[in-house]
């Protein structure tokens, strides 16, 4: 569903997936929406009342994670088949695949400059991948539970991760070292997101709370 904040304007409703929808992302201009589903497909939707979509079928298991590059030209998907797949958005052209993890991929994100991809998995690993040579730049294994969410800081210098171990961690991309650990919640930390100004982080947990963290 895409909701319009103008009074009395009905939301757009997009129907097409044959299973639960796990992840959605939209291009910066809002014209295109990309979704990943348990039906093993990625769908690219035109954000209009017609709800037209095209299908990418390149995974062999549920697609848990979706991320778009900053300019909206590339989509990366992460799946229970343990791989990452990158496609062009405008023509759905396949670019490359990465055998990323030893378990399900729960979360993935492009860096702000699109040079890197960060992925997190049930195998407790966070991995950084170079988009040009498709090789792993660094890996982090400090969480004691499955990684639920990874996000790049808006300036691209660090990443944040959240886990079933109830913590949030911050990592420096350049030095490849941990910066901070927050004993954040009383249950799984399912999602995190940076404020656009980079000063705050919001977390959402299975303990039924949201928390806002002052990173300064």
Summarize the structure.
With 216 residues, the chain is mainly beta. It has 2 domains: 99 residues, Thrombin, subunit H (Beta Barrel), CATH 2.40.10.480; 117 residues, Methylamine Dehydrogenase, Chain H (7 Propeller), CATH 2.130.10.
Tell me which CATH architecture of the largest domain applies here.
7 Propeller
Give the class from helix and strand content and strand pairing. mainly beta
Task: Please give the number of β-strands.
Answer: 19
Number of contiguous helices? 0
The fold-level CATH name of the largest domain is Methylamine Dehydrogenase, Chain H
Query: Mean pLDDT, as a whole number?
Result: 94
- What is the 3D shape? globular
Beta content: over 45%
Instruction: Give me the side-by-side strand order of the main sheet.
Output: 1-2-3-4
CATH H-level homologous superfamily name of the largest domain: YVTN repeat-like/Quinoprotein amine dehydrogenase
Top-tier CATH class of the largest domain: Mainly Beta
Number of domains: 2
Spatial separation of the terminal alpha carbons = 35 Å
Largest sheet: 4 strands, antiparallel
Please write the string of helix (H) and strand (E) elements.
EEEEEEEEEEEEEEEEEEE
Q: Report helical residue fraction.
A: under 10%
Radius of gyration of CA atoms, rounded to a whole number = 17 Å
* Low-confidence region ranges: none
């Amino acid at each position: 569903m895409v909701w319009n904040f103008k009074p009395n304007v009905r939301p757009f409703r997009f129907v097409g997936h044959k299973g639960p929808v796990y992840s959605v992302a939209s291009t910066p201009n809002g014209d295109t929406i990309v979704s990943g589903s348990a039906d093993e497909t990625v769908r690219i939707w035109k954000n209009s009342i017609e709800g037209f979509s095209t299908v990418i079928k390149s995974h062999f298991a549920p697609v848990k994670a979706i991320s778009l590059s900053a300019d909206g030209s590339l989509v990366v998907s992460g799946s229970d088949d343990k791989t990452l797949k990158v496609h062009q958005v405008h023509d759905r052209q396949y670019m490359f695949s990465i055998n990323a993890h030893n378990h399900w991929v729960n979360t993935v994100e492009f860096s702000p400059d699109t040079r890197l991809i960060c992925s997190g998995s049930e195998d407790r690993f966070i991995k950084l991948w170079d988009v040009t040579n498709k090789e792993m730049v660094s890996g982090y294994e400090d969480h004691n539970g499955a990684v639920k969410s990874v996000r790049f800081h808006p300036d691209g210098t660090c990443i944040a991760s959240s886990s079933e171990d109830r913590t949030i961690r911050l990592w420096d991309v350049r030095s490849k070292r941990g910066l901070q650990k927050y004993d954040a919640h009383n249950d799984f930390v399912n999602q995190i997101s940076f404020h656009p100004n980079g000063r705050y982080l919001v977390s959402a947990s299975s303990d039924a709370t949201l928390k806002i963290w002052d990173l300064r």
